[in-house]
C-alpha cells in the first residue's frame, strides 16, 4: 500500500550522502555521531534534550552524552516531524503517543488533521499575500518617478476605510 511507503524528507538525501553505506555505529555513540546519524546538528540534539523530547540520555564517567540506537531513532522521529512542520508541542504529544502502545490511531490522526487544517489556513493567508503583492506590483509604474503604490500601501498612506485617496477621487468623479 502507498501508506507504508517511506516518503523522503528534505534532509534525507543530504544526510544519506554524507555517511558511508557500510559504516555501522558501535553503540552507544557520542553526540556528534548521533547528530550525524539522525541528520541534525549537535546543537539541535542538545536543544531537543533540553525541551524534554529526548529523555534519559546516558552519560559516560567523564560526563559526555552517550546515545543509544533508540535515542537516534527518536531523533529521526523528531527531525521527520519537524520536516512536516509539526510544532514542538505537537511533537511532544506525538512522541508520547509513539511510546504508548495503548494509544489509538484516532488520537494521532486528530493531531495530523489539525496540523493539515493549520497548514491550509497558512497557505490561504500566503496566497492572499501573494495576490495583494501582485496587485500592488501591477499598479506600480516601475519608472523614474517617486510615486510608488507599493510603498504607499506599506505606509498606509491615502487609505480611508480601505479605499485609497486616488480610488476615492475616481469614485467621486463618476
Write structural notes for this entry.
- With 174 residues, the chain is mainly α.
- Helices cover 59% and strands 5% of the residues.
- It has eight helices and four strands; from the N terminus they run H-H-H-E-E-H-H-H-H-E-E-H.
- The strands form two sheets. Strands 1-2 form a two-stranded antiparallel ribbon. Strands 3-4 form a two-stranded antiparallel ribbon.
- A hairpin with a 2-residue loop joins strand 3 (159-160) and strand 4 (163-164).
**How many helices?**
8
- Which range does the strand content fall in? under 5%
The mean pLDDT is 86
Estimated structural class: mainly alpha
Q: What is the gyration radius calculated from CA atoms?
A: 25 Å
Assembly state of the chains shown: single chain
Q: Please describe the biggest sheet, giving its number of strands, its sense, and whether it closes into a barrel.
A: 2 strands, antiparallel
Task: Identify the strand order in the major beta sheet.
Answer: 1-2
Global outline: elongated
Quick recap:
59% of the residues lie in helices and 5% in strands. It is mainly alpha-helical and 174 residues long.
Feature tags:
single chain; 174 residues; mainly alpha; two-stranded antiparallel sheet; 8 helices; 5% strand; disordered C terminus
Amino acid at each position: 500500500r502507498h501508506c507504508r511507503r517511506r516518503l523522503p524528507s528534505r534532509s534525507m538525501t543530504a544526510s544519506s550522502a554524507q555517511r558511508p553505506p557500510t559504516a555501522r555505529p558501535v553503540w552507544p555513540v557520542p553526540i556528534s555521531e548521533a547528530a550525524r546519524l539522525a541528520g541534525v546538528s549537535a546543537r539541535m540534539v542538545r536543544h531537543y534534550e533540553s525541551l524534554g523530547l529526548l529523555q534519559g540520555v546516558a552519560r559516560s564517567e567523564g560526563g559526555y552524552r552517550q546515545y543509544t540506537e533508540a535515542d537516534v531513532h527518536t531523533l529521526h522521529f523528531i527531525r521527520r516531524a519537524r520536516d512536516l512542520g509539526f510544532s514542538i508541542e505537537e511533537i511532544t504529544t506525538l512522541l508520547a503517543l509513539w511510546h504508548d502502545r495503548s494509544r489509538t490511531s484516532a488520537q494521532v490522526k486528530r493531531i495530523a488533521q489539525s496540523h493539515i487544517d493549520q497548514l491550509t489556513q497558512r497557505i490561504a493567508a500566503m496566497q492572499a499575500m501573494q495576490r495583494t503583492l501582485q496587485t500592488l506590483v501591477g499598479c506600480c509604474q516601475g519608472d523614474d518617478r517617486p510615486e510608488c503604490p507599493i510603498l504607499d500601501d506599506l505606509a498606509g498612506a491615502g487609505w480611508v476605510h480601505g479605499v485609497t485617496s486616488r480610488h476615492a477621487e475616481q469614485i467621486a468623479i463618476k
